[in-house]
Amino acid sequence: QVQLVESGGGLVRAGGSLRLSCAASGDTGDIDVWGWYRRAPGKQREVVAQIETNGKLYYVEFAKGRFTISRDNARNTVTLEMNNLKPEDTAVYYCNAAELGPYITDYWGQGTQVTVSS
């Protein structure tokens, strides 16, 4: 089992920045992909960015150039730096850890609210 706890959400004006952090604990040795997702009001949850254990990065189009995902293996944390935030970035942001293989096992944090005012 893996436990994930997010922090760092809040209210920010358009153009501002936020730094989300995800602290992982438990049996993280089998995790293959770490990621951030978000769910905006009235919308489905969507991927924002992912980082594989080999360091490979993936960003969804709206995150490119504005968001940066990183992982600190020593501290077992995953961070999402968000710059030039827009009102449409308002959502609950979730940390995710995934074990790949014959079956995919997903672990989720409780989410942290990000609100961007215009």
Structure description:
Helix content is 0%, strand content 57%. The chain contains no helices and eleven strands. Strands 2, 4, 5, 6, 9, 10 and 11 form a seven-stranded mixed beta sheet that branches. Strands 1-3-8-7 form a four-stranded antiparallel beta sheet, with no helix packed on it. A hairpin with a 5-residue loop joins strand 9 and strand 10 (105-108). The termini are far apart.
Compile the SSE list and pairings.
Blueprint: E1 2-7, E2 10-13, E3 18-26, E4 33-39, E5 46-52, E6 57-59, E7 67-72, E8 77-82, E9 91-99, E10 105-108, E11 112-117
Topology as H/E string? EEEEEEEEEEE
N-C termini distance: 40 Å
**Coarse shape:** globular
Main beta sheet: strand number and arrangement? 7 strands, mixed
Beta-strand fraction estimate: over 45%
Helix content: under 10%
Per DSSP E runs of 2 or more residues, the count of β-strands stands at 11
Q: Structural class, judged by helices and strands?
A: mainly beta
C-alpha Rg (nearest Å):
14 Å
Count of alpha/pi helices: 0
